Amino acid sequence: MQDIQDQGNQDQANEHGYQPQAVETAAQTYWRDHRAYEVKEDASRPKFYCLSMLPYPSGALHMGHVRNYTIGDVISRYQRMQGKNVLQPMGWDAFGLPAENAAIKNKTAPAKWTYQNIEHMRAQLQRMGFAYDWTREFATCRPDYYRWEQLMFTRLMKKGMAYRKNAVVNWDPVDQTVLANEQVVDGRGWRSGALVEKREIPQWFLKITDYAQELLDGLDTLPGWPDAVKTMQRNWVGRSEGLEIHFDVEGESEPLTVFTTRPDTLMGVTFVSIAGEHPLAIKAAQDNAKLAAFLEELKHGGVSEAELETQEKRGMDTGIEAIHPLTGEKIPVFVANFVLWGYGTGAVMAVPGHDQRDWEFAQKYSLPIRMVVVDRAVLDAVAEIQHDLSKGVGADPMRAALGGGNIDAYETSAAVQLIESFEASIQEDSAFTERGYLVNSGEFDGMDYSQAFEAMAARFEREGKGVRRVNWRLRDWGVSRQRYWGCPIPVIYCPTCDAVPVPEDQLPVVLPEDVAFSGVQSPIKADPEWRKTTCPQCGGPAERETDTFDTFMESSWYYARYTSPGANDQVDERANYWLPVDQYIGGIEHAILHLLYFRFYHKLMRDAGLVQTDEPATNLLCQGMVIAETFYRDNADGSKDWINPADVEIERDDKARVIGARSKSDGQPVKIGGTEKMSKSKNNGIDPQAMVDKFGADTVRLFSMFAAPPEQSLEWSEAGVEGMARFLRRFWREVTTHASQPDHPVVDPTALDAGQKTLRRQLHETIQKVSDDIGRRHSFNTAIAALMELLNALNKFNDQSEQGRAVRHEALEAMVLLLNPVVPHVSHTLWQVLGHPESVLEDQPWPKVDSVALVRDSLTLAVQVNGKLRGTIEVAANASKEEAEALALVQPNVAAFLEGQTVCKVIVVPGKIVNIVAG
Which of 213, 289, 420, 773 yields a CA-CA distance of 20 to 30 A from 462? Predict the structure, then answer.
């Protein structure tokens, strides 16, 4: 019966050619009916957990999704063909702001919009043929998922790892709601247009800073992560060793404390900058209307470090004076818009001579700039002048050099000119920010950075004016969001007992989904019945927390839940079989938020006894963006009307560069905007569904793997997609034509002629290369290129002898298996066409290299004359140096170049080159 079915497949393939939709439907039906990619733990087999970052259910897949998930699918299928027990799951990161925005726009509840999108996107993923275990699917907005997140939070509260404090947020006074940074446009609320205020409100935090050193050290245990990601995380965690220094304040009992990593510049402090929320600023503003107005203005500024870095540096003198801890000098205290109250001490010692931001501020407000650090050349110049001056001159080398005794005698000396030039550049051009040697610093003169650090630390600690401190750039993770569509924070507020975690037997705290959503106030905040509850400690009336979790909470542990579907805890013992993730795939834009929280949450689960490993993922691959051409027309108001590439007729030159474009709708020219990341704003996105409908999923998968290395940007090209479709049709014809022959002999390596050996050698070289390119290097584009070269060789191979057909059959079977991770639907069908029963092709073993086939009977050697290539020769693989030399000297082109010359020397490098020296 199977023989009849296989013959039917062959006849259909020959009669109709490659029909992507029919081929893909048949393969997917077989996989679904046979539950091909469902997986269970199996201690007898090596496991491989391959995970692509889960998508937000926005409504439709984009090409970035297709690329990301195809990479994961290629790796997963390859690893299963290595005999491994492979887990590749999929789910939905379903909470978040876009659902709220869509709810306002479409007048529908966020839950309904989200679930509809999940249904549509799941069908799209299935249409792509990805080998997911759909039995493990979940949406993070479902109570059976987020209840375990709530449970972990209550446990962290009891351990003191979760705490509540005031923090600054963006507040829209018209809509009466907190705005995310991306909802603030030019300082105004995106919906109301009102000026946004900075407001302090209570929020929940997780103590990620308790794990700062471990997060830093753990990066050294991740050789499979990109260096760029590890560097970004190191910088984000930001370990810095410095001094905490106390400046006394005129009229105040408490000192002003600053932290600095550059105590060597302390003698250059000319003012202190404080945040607008600093108690000193607030106190000073009570009697200063201008300052009060400035503080009010600062409330409308940005709250992120990125915003503070790019905005204009502004400040105002508070009228308060601090006392320099070394000199006793009085220095002004300024409120500055670039100092964050929630970062460090909220106060910064300003050294305009040696910090560029302070230099710009000092220039703007005419504040003193002092040079107290110089490079080696300037220090040597100072020493030279000091040596010549009388011994009675003071110990300060810079003042001695520029103002002591008989300095007039040195006005024209090179040393003085160097010193004056250096100081002038600091005063007029920019700060000198490098580490160097101290000058104008009294007892610390001549010291380098390390010496000055130690000397000042010792003095301040001895005098009680400071202390050594390790500071971290990393802040505790604020997990509260004043939004509706998120996981409810499981806390109850009681007038008597304060904040109380919801008892475990009352979890989950379920978010109501059937709500009317206006976007002005959270439905759970507006619903007194939902808020009203009973205190679990005293039994008195209480209210629920109405904030929800940051959606990074859900995506920080989802990978672990996939390992334990249905577990009666966050995870169970199955997690220790699958974890860590062997290959994680996602964009580098997630390097310092998701990927850091991902590592932190794993350590929380480890310390809760839920998992055993220190890190969640062994290897990380960050795929590049998908980019495409942009086209536009200018509008009368100066804006651009972006036109989708699908609606443009494009003219290209012989190098495929765009040289002209016209709108398909009116035939008129449109402007070429260049190549950019696919985005809605530039309207240059390509609908994957349209491409799959036109070319088939395998063709789209093949192009996304062939067009660029995975870490680099992929430029979308429909012409390139058409090229991949042609390749698959050629491959299909090659296999079906061969399969129509009555028999398929077995290769006898001892009976092959030269041509058959050559093709078989190329086959096994290809197996070797593709195995390494996919398995180790993840260089999918070069693997596909090698398979294309093999197909070209097969097209030219016209040997219909018994062994000729045998070598062809071996090559085509290997090609089907080698291509299977990339084009599984085509491979599924063609495997049957070649005479095999229908099966899950991943259960077939990966082709093995026959080392005998790689041995060459003859070698091609390059022949150089006086270092320049003049020809090649074919020699037996075991030819002697004398035989290679003799053949090289009579090679026609070489002989022509040697005519009239004397051969002085012949150098033979066995297996590589013959170099003839003649004169």
Answer: 213
Spatial CB neighbours of 244, under 8 Å, sequence gap ≥ 6: 257, 258, 259, 345, 466, 467, 468, 469
Whole-angstrom Cα distance, residue 243 to residue 325?
13
| Three-class SS of 117-164 | HHHHHHHHHHHCCCCCCHHHCCECCCHHHHHHHHHHHHHHHHHCCEEE
Relative to beta strand 913-918, strand 315-323 is: unpaired
Beta carbons within 8 Å of 535's beta carbon, 6+ residues apart? 492, 494, 496, 497, 500, 541, 542
pLDDT band at 223 (very low <50, low <70, confident <90, very high): very high
Would you say how long the chain is, in residues? 919
Alpha helices in 564-652 (DSSP H): 575-578, 594-607
Report angle CA 374, 378, 380 to the nearest 5 degrees. Answer: 120
Q: How confident is the model at residue 519 (pLDDT cuts 50, 70, 90)?
A: confident
pLDDT number for residue 402: 47
Q: Which amino acid belongs to residue 575?
A: A
The pLDDT of residue 901 is above 60: yes
Q: What is the pLDDT of residue 188?
A: 86
Rounded Cα gap, residues 49 and 714, in angstroms? 26
Give the closest residue to 39 by CA, choosing from 83, 4, 89, 81.
Answer: 89
Q: Measured between alpha carbons, how far is 170 from 266 in angstroms, rounded to an integer? A: 35
Write down all domains in the chain, each with its CATH number in brackets.
1-34+687-855 (1.10.730.10), 37-140+553-621 (3.40.50.620), 150-207+476-549 (2.170.220), 239-365 (3.90.740.10), 376-431 (no CATH), 626-677 (2.20.28.290), 858-918 (3.10.20.590)
Q: Point out which residues pair with 652 in neighbouring strands.
A: 658
What's residue 308's pLDDT?
A: 64
Measure the CA–CA gap between 917 and 907, rounded to whole angstroms. Answer: 8
Instruction: Decide if 557 contacts 579 (C-beta within 8 A).
Output: no
Distance from CA of residue 149 to its chain's centroid? 25
Alpha-carbon span 78 to 80, nearest angstrom: 5
The span from the CA of 823 to the CA of 806, in Å, is: 24
Query: Which pair of structure tokens corresponds to residue 587?
Result: 């964009």
3-state secondary structure of 218: helix
Phi, psi of 178 (to 5 degrees): -85, 140
3-state secondary structure 41-97: CCCCCCEEEEEECCCCCCCCCCHHHHHHHHHHHHHHHHHHHCCCEEECCCCECCCCH
CA nearest to 47, candidates 571, 560, 578: 578
Other C-beta atoms lying within 10 Å of the C-beta of residue 409: 12
Nearest alpha-carbon partner for 768 in 754, 782, 758, 752: 782
Q: Could you give the residue ranges of the DSSP H alpha helices within 238-319?
A: 279-285, 289-298, 305-310
Inter-residue contact 170 to 179 (CB < 8 Å): yes
Task: Tell the burial category of 840 from Cβ atoms under 10 Å away from its Cβ (0-12, 13-18, 19+).
Answer: middle
Provide DSSP, 797-852: ----SHHHHHHHHHHHHHHHHHHTTTSHHHHHHHHHHTTPPS--GGGSPPP---HH
How far apart, in whole angstroms, are the C-alpha atoms of residue 47 and residue 577?
8
In angstroms, what CA-CA distances link 750 with 176, 381, 756, 800, 803? 84, 82, 11, 18, 10
Q: What is the CA radius of gyration of the chain?
A: 36
Q: How many helices (H) and strands (E) does the chain have?
A: 31, 35
Q: What pLDDT shows up at residue 520?
A: 75
Mean pLDDT value across residues 480-484 = 91
CA-closest candidate to residue 432, choices 442, 422, 441: 422
Q: How far is CA 569 from CA 134, 503, 779, in A?
A: 21, 15, 39
As a whole number of angstroms, the distance between CA 396 and CA 404 comes to: 10
DSSP letters spanning 688-722:
HHHHHHHH-HHHHHHHHHHSS-TTS-EE--HHHHH
